[in-house]
């Protein structure tokens, strides 16, 4: 029998932190940062959750596609954000969807859109449900007659592989492991590995402009898309499949990042690659994060295009048991399907040493250098990280991340100001101290994508309010210091107010008009990208 | 005194083909392809051109920005397309703009938009005037009270250079040589070199999704843009300057490719690079174009990202005096600001030899290999090419190009069918034979951008109609065989019918709504991207 997904956090039932990893995490937070548990809440059993009665009943023709049992409704009530987690443990399921629908093809999608429109119900597209920004959380205005969550997991096939052009036609609901398994026999890979890889889908990646694990060159899903097919309430859109085009504004780029507000991404041709045969990973230690950032800049501007070049500060290493907090770690990797990558690594190493880096583990003599030293320890922690929240939230410990991007000229001030704002906000909101860390998730020749994490103890009775107070302050700091409100986590419901500040107002108008045309009844993911009339933001 | 631009063709007055180059071109066309001059028309003198009386008079405040003398009106009557050239030599200036305005800053742009809107006049944005698709040709419906051409050449400054982030803020009207001259003292380059480089502008490149000379990686201007500022009739839009973002659909991507139909691109932050210090270029000969294409594919899929990898077929080499027609030439180049590129070239050479290529000139022993052999000869011809039309049109010889992009799986059929359709169309339209050639202008891992050229003798009395007959047939063939109607030449007025076929209809609706919001009076570049109501296409 297939493993069942948890409805209270990341992953499958039975998966999670081992008791020793859990204890180590709690001990580090307590001993290193004075962050202690403030309470204990049990995982809500399905029977403990009171769900509102479903307000919708699917018509006979759609019944076979629809589920309304408590598990399905609860599972689709939230994504994977910190406020989602707090509300799950508070047993706050007032906004559970009324129906969860599983289309099997585009006709099903069109029929479900049609029915939801006729009913006046909101429709929430749901890929893997990994949104950390409230993108799948069905908080919609009272004017909707109900909520249908459209789960794409049955449209999960790789339909065609063109090895000559290195591209593949894949359905929107295919999760990372599913699509990679189907590509593997053809000797190719999409090689797009967001941290959510296991529990997120191609359609979700395109809808949210996902950033892959690889830090340079073609890392955003945007660059891997050859065409997009979307089913909207106004009809089907399919762009021409092309390796490049200069024919007017790109139709794909309107759909990429549309976050379910314009339509459902049913399939896309994407660019795949030969499978990696050669790899090298090296780690370097720097006394200071800003100094390490200089080395990232040197490598990013040298035209080397490493698979990865990433720095992780002392706090993040310490919290994750990968260092004593005294150094910043840089990890550089090169990968190739065709030939050894040592030449490239030699040059990157030169850049790192020039900027004051000290080798962590010797990549020349150790093909497994990426598994050794601080780099190896952090790598293991990285894979575990999504499970942390399920442990910490019920103990009253806030554990969250936010990310941005900034040009190099403004990076240092951005980093110092946003970090300070986060510390200040934690103190202001909770009265206590927090652990605030930073790494680079991605690096471009013109600037990095800083990724912040923070932990702090909250008052169990007002954890959600305290989180919002911190979220507002750090988001303001990101915007005030010139960054983007998101580099790859997306807007969802949580970032909407700052997104409205970031985008040019006239572009917001154009997007609203696009939505009115494609989704005339305004049923698609209300409140995401385009504001919901008469429904106040959760943030104010 | 500054050189004056020709109003009858490419470049400055006094520049053009040398008599010997001219004679060689005509001799090759006649001897090799039976293409002979069918007439002789003199260059129209300014006094020979009858211009309609201006229908507009700028208000006093705008008079200092405006010109209405015959030279200015004639100069701005056409771009650089084949039908433009035919109409110039036919002395057909019925659609000359009534006013040519030269804004000096954004306030001027806004004031001119406002005035044109109040007058009910069409406004044609004009960068360097190099459009080969009718993008600046003021053929507009009678409902407009007149035409104002907005020439951006006085907004031509590099405003700021950020060497740390390797980016620069540049005004939209800066031509290639101007902006490179201003960047040079900072040790950086935009390194975007379309064939029109000398007579085209940053704003024009962004508006038309220009493709640079470099054939792989960051070749489209799209990838070099950090932000865009546009002044529209509805106000000013400025996107946030960022190295990367995942915040909703990209606002920049709506403006990139908007071809003057939504607003005027006044300035943009763009990504610059260190100046090139190391180069290597190698040429290889292949017996067959499709075989050479296989070598391009191998190199494009090997993750090498050469500055260039391009193939030119025997006919194109022969027409341009760079070969005897018996072989296809491949040119591969690597460039770096930081280090020797021989390692990369070694691997590319391996790919070329594996696929049956024979070295043209030895790159290892000749640092000037790019100036030698067939590669060197073709390179010289490439620089001269824009001048050819000014010689050929008045002799009744059609000389035109069109370009597309296609995935590798469909490339071979596309190439054969489009080439055959071009030959057939020439025979059908003119009763004679033509020279039809192909090269790759750009190459991606998933497909090439085939670039076709054709020459044929026309009936001087119906040259425009014969050209349209051929254009319609080849454009249909490009679309029927799965290509894009343009890879980097843009849509303009000439490609509009095929663009409407190519883009998803719902995307066309969205674009029309964007235009209605940003340009409510519909004055901006009418007929480009969004159809003009009640004005039939030139193509039918």
Describe the structure in your own words:
In chain A, helix 8 crosses helix 10 and helix 13 runs antiparallel to helix 14 (463-480). With 540 residues, chain A is of the alpha+beta class. Mean pLDDT of chain A is 94; it is low at 536-540. In chain A, strand 8 (225-232) and strand 9 form a beta hairpin. The first copy, chain A, has helices at 19-33, 70-75, 82-89, 106-119, 176-183, 202-208, 251-255, 289-300, 314-319, 342-354, 373-384, 388-392, 408-430, 463-480, 496-502, 505-518, and strands at 66-67, 99-101, 122-126, 147-151, 158-162, 167-171, 188-189, 225-232, 235-238, 264-271, 273-274, 278-286, 308-312, 328-336, 358-361, 397-403, 434-444, 447-457. In chain A, the strands form 5 sheets. Chain A has a 5-stranded antiparallel sheet. The first copy, chain A, has a 4-stranded mixed sheet with strand order 1-2-4-3, with helices on one face. At the A-B interface, strand 9, helix 7, strand 11, strand 18 and helix 16 of A face strand 9, helix 7, strand 11, strand 18 and helix 16 of B.
- What Rg of chain A do the Cα atoms give? 23 Å
The helix content of chain A, as a percent range, equals 25-40%
Oligomer: homodimer
Uncertain ranges of chain A:
536-540
Query: Which two chains have the most extensive interface, and how many residues on each?
Result: A-B, 91 and 90 residues
């Amino acid at each position: 029998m297939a493993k069942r997904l948890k409805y209270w956090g990341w992953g499958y039932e039975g998966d999670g932190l081992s008791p020793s990893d859990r204890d180590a995490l709690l001990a580090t937070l307590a001993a290193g940062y004075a962050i202690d548990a403030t309470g204990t809440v049990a995982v809500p059993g399905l029977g403990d959750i009171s769900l509102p009665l479903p307000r919708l009943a699917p018509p006979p023709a759609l019944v076979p596609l629809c589920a309304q049992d408590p598990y399905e409704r609860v599972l689709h009530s939230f994504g994977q954000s910190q406020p989602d987690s707090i509300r799950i443990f508070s047993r706050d399921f007032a906004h559970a969807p009324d129906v969860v629908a599983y289309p099997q093809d585009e006709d099903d999608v069109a029929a479900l859109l049609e029915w939801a429109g006729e009913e006046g119900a909101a429709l929430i597209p749901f890929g893997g449900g990994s949104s950390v920004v409230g993108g799948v959380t069905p908080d919609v205005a009272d004017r909707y007659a109900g909520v249908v969550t459209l789960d794409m997991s049955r449209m999960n096939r790789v339909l065609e592989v063109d090895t000559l052009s290195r591209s593949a036609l894949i359905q929107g609901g295919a999760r990372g492991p599913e699509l990679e398994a189907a590509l593997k026999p053809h000797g190719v890979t999409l090689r797009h590995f967001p941290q959510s890889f296991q529990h997120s889908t191609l359609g979700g990646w395109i809808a949210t402009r996902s950033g892959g694990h690889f830090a340079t060159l073609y890392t955003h899903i945007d660059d891997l898309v050859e065409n997009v097919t979307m089913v909207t309430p106004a009809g089907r859109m399919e762009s021409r499949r092309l390796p490049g085009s200069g024919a007017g504004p790109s139709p794909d780029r309107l759909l990429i990042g549309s976050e379910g507000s314009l339509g459902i991404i049913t399939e896309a041709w994407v660019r795949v690659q030969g499978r990696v045969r050669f790899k090298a990973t090296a780690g370097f230690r720097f006394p200071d994060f800003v100094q390490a950032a200089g080395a990232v800049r040197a490598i990013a501007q040298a035209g080397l295009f490493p698979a990865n070049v990433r720095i992780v500060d002392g706090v993040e290493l310490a919290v994750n048991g990968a260092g004593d907090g005294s150094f910043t770690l840089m990890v550089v990797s090169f990968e190739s399907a065709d030939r050894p990558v040592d030449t490239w690594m030699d040059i990157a190493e030169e850049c790192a040493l020039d900027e004051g880096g000290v080798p962590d583990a010797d990549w020349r003599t150790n093909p497994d250098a990426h598994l050794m030293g601080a780099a190896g320890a952090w790598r293991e922690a990285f894979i575990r990280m999504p499970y942390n929240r399920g442990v910490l939230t019920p103990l009253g410990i806030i554990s969250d991340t936010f990310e941005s991007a900034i040009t190099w000229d403004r990076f240092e001030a951005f980093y110092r100001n946003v970090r300070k704002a986060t510390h200040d906000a934690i103190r202001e909101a909770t009265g206590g101290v927090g652990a605030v860390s930073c790494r680079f998730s991605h690096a471009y020749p013109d600037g990095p994508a800083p990724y912040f994490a923070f932990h702090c103890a909250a008052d169990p009775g007002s954890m959600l309010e305290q989180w919002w107070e911190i979220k507002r302050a750090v988001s303001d700091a990101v915007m005030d210091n010139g960054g983007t409100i998101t580099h790859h986590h997306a807007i969802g419901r949580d970032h909407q107010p700052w997104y409205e500040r970031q985008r040019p107002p006239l572009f917001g108008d154009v997007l609203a008009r696009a939505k009115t045309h494609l989704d005339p009844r305004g049923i698609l993911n209300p409140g995401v990208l385009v504001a919901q009339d008469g429904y106040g933001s959760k943030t104010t």
